Amino acid sequence: MSTSTTSIPDPSTRYRRRGQRGVNAEMLSWMFMRASGVLLVILVFGHLFVNLWLGLGVKGIDFAFVGGKWANPFWQVWDLLMLWLGLIHGGNGVRTIINDYARNDRLRLVLKGLLYVAVVVTIILGTLVIFTFDPCPTGAEPSLLPSFCEG
């Protein structure tokens, strides 16, 4: 009777597929999800605390409130970080779901391509809105402008 031995690698060693070289992208993706998740919890709860608790609640959030907030570079960067991390974190999660459930290589390629385009376009548009938002545009009807705009 022949006995065959099976060797099981030590779980603490790094696994690499045959022929794989360089950076392990899935491990970096996994680490990014953990780090961005922690940062997003801090950013989102800070956002909710300032907007709802310190302010007048939902009724106090209007055009003038957002305009006043985005006049400060600190809040622009805060909201930009929330936008970028939220979209990249969510896009990475959807990418993982596509990899898990799309069995056809062509379908997987199309779905991930659409996902990447949607994430990039949304990040670009959101970034433009945050940094080009002007609550007091020149030449606007004064009665339509918020009260903090100089006449």
Automatic annotation (TrEMBL):
Give the record's GO biological process terms.
cytochrome complex assembly; tricarboxylic acid cycle
- Output the Gene Ontology cellular-component terms: plasma membrane
Pathway assignment: Carbohydrate metabolism; tricarboxylic acid cycle
Name of the protein in its database record: Succinate dehydrogenase hydrophobic membrane anchor subunit
- List the SUPFAM superfamilies: Fumarate reductase respiratory complex transmembrane subunits
What gene does this protein come from? Answer: sdhD
- List the PANTHER family hit by this protein, alphabetically: SUCCINATE DEHYDROGENASE HYDROPHOBIC MEMBRANE ANCHOR SUBUNIT
- Which GO molecular function, any one, fits this protein according to its record? electron transfer activity
The protein's required cofactors: heme
